[in-house]
């Protein structure tokens, strides 16, 4: 992928899953990579395999912890070229009347507050540079209603609202902002989601797993590398006019589990 050598890339929730895959792929492409994660053990494991990567244990919902990360990057890099605001949580599964306000707020905070803090920091640098790219991780749940997952769907729609607004706000400064909308991504996180949803729906987990594929036109799951392919494209010069887009990488979702 052209134009990635030496680019400064910050990835939130980069210790495992999609974020760790992003870190590996950008590192392999020659980018300078920084990752943060609240899971210190996962962070150490991922960073240990990527020489030169900056890693900071931080909860994206905590401004003081994120400021430690930003201060390090200000010192080491003095700017940033690509932000992957990837942190989030699946939140609780259940009927709206059975969910607690505490769980609702925790889900919105993890998915939105972290993106807000990271985008605000990145915007200051990118405005001074006159260029940059931001990629916010939403979900196909940010494009559809999602029964039994109201906090998650609301948060991911909010991510797209933030992306659309920032694309307009920052476009005059040469900054591109897009959202990535993954479908069902293979891995431990999705298995945890299936367990929670199966319980909420009163279904066998294997039956629910089949339903996820049935609702996709290509009848397939998504891999983290599928998503990384899009992230690398959006960091490159090849996407210089792509902004304000909610890009679904999902094999074309036709329905969500309901």
Automatic annotation (TrEMBL):
Transmembrane segments: none
CDD domains listed in its UniProt record: SDR_c (cd05233)
An example molecular function term from Gene Ontology annotations: oxidoreductase activity, acting on the CH-OH group of donors, NAD or NADP as acceptor
Keyword ATP-binding: no
Record-listed E.C. numbers: 1.1.1.-
Keyword annotations: Oxidoreductase
Gene3D superfamilies tied to this protein: NAD(P)-binding Rossmann-like Domain (3.40.50.720)
SUPFAM superfamilies (alphabetical): NAD(P)-binding Rossmann-fold domains
Family designation: Belongs to the short-chain dehydrogenases/reductases (SDR) family.
Name recorded for this polypeptide: Levodione reductase
Organism of provenance: Aliiroseovarius pelagivivens
Gene transcribed to yield this protein: lvr
């Amino acid at each position: 992928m052209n134009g990635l050598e030496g680019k400064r890339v910050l990835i939130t929730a980069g210790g495992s899953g999609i974020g760790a895959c992003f870190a590996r792929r950008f590192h392999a492409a020659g980018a300078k990579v920084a990752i943060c994660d609240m899971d210190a053990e996962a962070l150490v494991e991922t960073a240990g395999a990527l020489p030169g990567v900056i890693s900071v244990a931080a909860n994206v919902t905590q401004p003081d912890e994120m400021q430690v990360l930003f201060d390090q990057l200000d010192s080491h890099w003095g700017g940033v070229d690509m932000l992957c605001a990837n942190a989030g949580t699946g939140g609780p599964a259940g009927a709206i009347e059975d969910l607690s306000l505490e769980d609702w707020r925790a889900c919105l905070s993890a998915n939105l507050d972290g993106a807000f803090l990271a985008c605000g920091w990145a915007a200051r640098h990118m405005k001074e540079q006159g260029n940059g790219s931001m990629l916010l991780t939403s979900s196909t749940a940010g494009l559809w209603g999602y029964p039994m997952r109201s906090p998650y769907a609301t948060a991911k729609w909010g991510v797209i609202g933030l992306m659309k607004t920032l694309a307009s706000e920052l476009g005059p400064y040469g900054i591109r902002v897009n959202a990535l909308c993954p479908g069902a991504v293979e891995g431990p996180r999705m298995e945890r989601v299936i367990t929670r949803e199966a319980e909420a729906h009163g279904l066998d987990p294997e039956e629910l797993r089949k339903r996820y594929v049935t609702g996709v036109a290509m009848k397939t799951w998504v891999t983290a590398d599928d998503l990384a392919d899009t992230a690398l494209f959006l960091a490159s010069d090849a996407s210089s006019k792509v902004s304000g887009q909610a890009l679904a990488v999902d094999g074309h979702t036709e329905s969500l589990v309901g």
